[in-house]
Model the fold of this input.
Amino acid sequence: MAACRTTRYELELRPDGDTMQRKVSMWRYRYQDGVETFDEFDVGKLRYISEIYDASMPDNLAQRHEFEGRFGATLPDDIGDGGWYLHRASTMGSVNTYVEHVDGGHKISWGLETRQKGLHRLVDVYLAWLDAEFGEDERYPRFRELVDVVIRDDLWNVALYLWAFDLSGLPREDESGHDAEERLAGELLIRLGIYLAQRDYFDPAEVPELISGILAASEKERRGLLLSFWLRGLANKLGTDPDEPLPWPLAEFARDFDTYVESFELFVAESDTIREMADAWEREYWNSLSPSEYARRKQIDELTEEILGGADPAGIDAVEYHLDVDVRPRNFVSMDSKRSVISQLEDMAFALDLDFFSIRGADALRVVLHVPQRPMMTNGTLEDDGTVRWSDNIAPDGDWGDRLPDVFYALWTAPAVEFQEEHFGKIVLEGEELVEHVGWYMALSPELAQEWDGFLRELEPGPNLIAALQNFCFASELPTCQTKPDPATPSVEQLDEDRQSVKISLRTEIADGTLRDIVDSLVRDQRTRPTGMSPSGS
Done:
């Protein structure tokens, strides 16, 4: 039984004021014959992450690796694409946002461009071989037009279907994660089948019989059934009646398929035609780069060569991924690669990183965020221990592809409890109101913010508190401030019809919104709070 290798990542986050304590753990293991053992971690990834955390490279690659560090607003791209921790504070409390994206491409348009070039070049290679094999036959132009126009267009639409599904990435891992994989796989296959049937490649009524035959056939027989099915599909596109024999050259392929396969493989591997095509594609790539992209690409190639010792340039590794964020990805093939030209072009055109039927082969990421308050917004799972957790499947072996990144996010507020209780006798701003207040506060000039903070520090709970709030006015707006409002203290009876906002008058215009929220909170009866909710909203 072959060994199954999997990489695991764990990320633990602890916000502390305007910084985020970050601990990342990673290990690779192999699972063979019921035994799980450590495997050597990718040296390129490990070297890159060690540099981020200013740590030394471990001597033993086959172990659990842990790195810790403290970061500000910008989070490192140690596992994926990085993210942000945004801490916005005021005297009344703070608003905190955590956002991180992993396992995705930076330039979706570049991924689509690569697929398009791969598809068209793949068809061009087949046409070059067909030209060499059948070009002298007078019947050939009709078949060539079918491949060049119809087949090319249909294959491009198939590639777009795969691209669209690939953008979604691997489903989040949960209890039904495997079922989700199979559901997506089934939907993709059904969509492709519908498309090909509508394009007259086959009659859907034939499919059950084909499947039954495949399930009952040997491997050699199965290959023959599939070949006959697709040759008949091409015949249908040529307008051949299903009861008629296969037309030329499909009949030739059916009669001596292995010989034609050998001819094609030899042509692709050794012909001057393909080498000239590959050289032209490479020149086109380098000429398409801006001067900065060109220099960066050369730097990446040199570094990859140094670290990985001459790895296949067509491959994608973690070192290149992390450094290649602003450089157009390679979209040409190499005749000197260990992989065939066809396999390189097929990967470009039809790459699909959704590991439908082998979810256990995907790498796994676990993220734990410790939050002091219940998040107002998050796409994670809130646990009883006050943490937010995410579990995600990510592309194995650093093969990030061009899918949309998976995004983790959480937004929470942290009221300044002691300050608010000292100056207002209770929590008056939390949740959405605190978010609005902090946003307003951050927009103030330094002078206005200082004046506002000074005003708040002078407030005390008591019968004169609301009057003091009503009479506040920034010094800069004194000439235009409204007349002194009615000193009468607003009551619960002055709530509007929705019992949300007190009908009061204020002198200030600049602080109107935040002052109304504060007064509303002071006036509203505690019974208006949802049952079971604490002042913090948790």
In short: Residues 140-167 form the longest helix (28 residues). Residues 4-105+359-414 form one domain. The longest strand covers residues 19-32. The two ends are 51 Å apart (CA to CA).
